[in-house]
Amino acid sequence: MEELKRSVAREALKFIEDDMIVGLGTGSTTAYFIEYLGKLIMEEELEDVYGVPTSYQARLLALENGVPVVGLDEVDAIDIAIDGADEVDPHLNLIKGRGAALAMEKIIEYRAGTFLVLVDESKLVERLGQKMPVPIEVIPAAWRAIAEEIEVFNATAELRMASKKDGPVVTDNGNFILDARFHRIDDPLDLEIELNNIPGVVENGIFADIADIVLVGTKGGVKRLER
Ligand SMILES: O=C[C@H](O)[C@H](O)[C@H](O)COP(=O)(O)O
Fold it and tell me: Does ipTM exceed 0.90?
């Protein structure tokens, strides 16, 4: 599995050129990409490439590997954003947010000229929600009210608990995460919009109609899916 992640991360380097502003995603697959990108920059095979991190994790990895970082408010545009995903459906709609970084990821990836997604073949599903819950970032005081409201969508929501901290996970933005399991997601775009309409919801992990290209690591090599 790790080798599949490495292979898509290596393939993603082919999309990076001099003078690009690159959105740096979060998670274990993108971590390889950031490491390889740093190597090319340090070896001066790429010049004037800057990363816009989607999380503290991405920022720390970029600094550790020699990728210069800039904030979203310091750039005019993002040429390309590279990130992993938890699920990818046949229309390239995604679920993201296992790492709780979904809000900043969506802000940056929505604005990118190209959004390139890196996954291994285990992430491909027929229908979103098949394996993974939909993470929803919420204002802490509203978590219970929102968890109850989610039931209207024929779903159950659970407050995500931390493993190296007592109590709930707190996102980079200081919010909580609800993991929502839906009986069936027929229209990802519609659900994405509906969830964001609930007061107290900051963002949700459905990324409908945003991905441009998905690179899939398979045992037979890297496959490219495009919308
Ligand atoms: O918040 C986390 C992100 O959405 C990740 O990009 C996603 O969970 C994929 O991570 P990984 O590459 O570790 O499977």
Answer: yes
Selection from 13, 227, 225, 22 nearest residue 119 by Cα: 225
Q: Pocket residues for ligand 1 (CB within 6 Å)?
A: 25-29, 83-86, 96-102, 105
Residue 219 Cα to ligand 1 midpoint, Å, equals: 20
Q: pLDDT tens digits for 71-106? A: 999 999 999 999 999 999 999 999 999 999 999 999
Domains and CATH numbers, the chain: 2-125+208-226 (3.40.50.1360), 134-204 (3.30.70.260)
pTM: 0.96
Is the backbone of residue 70 left (phi > 0), alpha (psi -120 to 50) or beta? Answer: beta
